[in-house]
Amino acid sequence: MDIILWRHAEAADGTPDHDRELTAKGVKQAEKIAAFLHRHLPGDTRILVSPTVRTQQTATALTGRFTLAPAIAPGASAQDVLKAAGWPDDDGAVLVVGHQPTLGEVAAQLLGSDDYALNIKKGALWWFSRRERDGSIQITLRLAITPDFL
Fold first, then answer.
1. What CA–CA distance (Å, rounded) separates 49 from 62?
2. Domain map (residue ranges) of the chain
3. What is the mean pLDDT of residues 143-148?
4. How far is residue 127's CA from residue 95's CA, in Å, rounded to a whole number?
5. What residues contact 22, with CB distance under 8 A and at least 6 apart?
6. What superfamily in CATH does domain 2-149 come from?
7. pLDDT of residue 87
8. Which of 26, 74, 114, 119 is the right S-S partner for 10, CB 3.0 to 4.6 Å?
9. Residue 102 · residue 48 · CB < 8 Å
């Protein structure tokens, strides 16, 4: 199984938090990552998106076909995200479009630490794979990239 974490792109400040929209820079960030994903994302990838405006706008740069997942809204726990994604037992790939600090907590757990969260930059993508080899589970960080590197 692959789990791909995509932090929403840059959004304007404001309230209510749920309704914050992407800035012009954020739209460009989302478009850069979406272009990369169009080339590399498996065709049968499930896409789970937080129900905030900024995450939906980020995902829409890739496709309009995604599932809103209240379980990954701001304030969700890393365990909420992993459960919603079906990690580690589902087949295929899942793309999670969400928020900090939760995505950073998920990344840290996948890398073996419950003691801290990692900082995932706005618009960045972190791609993890899980496989079993010789009876042991292996988790690999396949990619970590920010939009400014594309």
1. 12
2. 2-149
3. 97
4. 9
5. 8, 9, 10, 11, 12, 30, 54, 57, 58
6. Phosphoglycerate mutase-like (3.40.50.1240)
7. 94
8. 26
9. no
Checking DSSP bridges between strand 46-49 and strand 93-98, what pairing results, if any? Answer: parallel
Of 80, 137, 140, 86, nearest to 110 by C-alpha is 140
What CA–CA distance (Å, rounded) separates 98 from 50?
Answer: 6
Q: Average pLDDT over the chain, rounded to whole?
A: 96
In this predicted structure, what is the pLDDT of residue 110? Answer: 95
CA angle 13, 18, 23 (to 5 degrees): 40
For helices 102-110 and 78-85, the axis angle rounded to 10 degrees is: 70
* Beta-carbon count within 10 A of 73 CB: 19
Contact 106, 82 (CB under 8 A): yes
115 or 22: which carries more pLDDT confidence? 22
Task: Considering only residues 67 and 115, tell me which one the structure prediction assigns the higher pLDDT.
Answer: 67
Assess contact for 120 and 5: CB atoms under 8 A.
yes
